[in-house]
Amino acid sequence: MTAIKVRDAARLLGVSDDTVRRWVSAGLLTTTSDEGVATVDGRRLAELARERATAPPDDDGILRSARNRFTGLVTDVVVDGVMAQVRMQCGPFEVTSLMSAEAAQELSLEPGSVATAVVKATTVIVETKREDS
Question: Could you read off the pLDDT of 52-79 as tens digits, one per residue?
């Protein structure tokens, strides 16, 4: 079992420590104590994250092969010649897209506008901390 501190669980899910404690009180999570520090089971936390995840509405009836969709606010658009760099804040994540300046203009992208970043990657790099023995 991967034990995750309550405060780290809250950070990972983008909620407050109090929210995680309410989930414990409601029976959605259980805690164990390791040297006086409350922890939750990482596997159960992952299950809860998936249960609570909400996908952006997909009302257009179009089927997509890309499953990674992040809806958020455009925070910055930098146009330099024929290219544009668009930054979005999607919950706790910043997503940056490079596109043609023409595409950014056609999409009316500007700070404060709502947009969805659709990501289809052939390479995804996963990192983890090495546990000390």
Answer: 776 656 667 777 777 788 888 899 999 9
Structure token digits, residue 4: 């995750």
Looking at the DSSP bridge assignments, the partners of residue 98 are 85
- Tell me, what CATH number does 87's domain have? 2.40.50.100
Per the structure, the complete domain to which residue 91 belongs is given by 68-119
**Residues 107 and 77 sit within 8 Å (Cβ to Cβ):** no
| pLDDT one-digit tens code per residue, 11-56 | 888 888 999 999 999 999 988 987 788 899 888 888 888 787 766 5
Q: Are 93 and 113 in contact (CB under 8 A)?
A: no
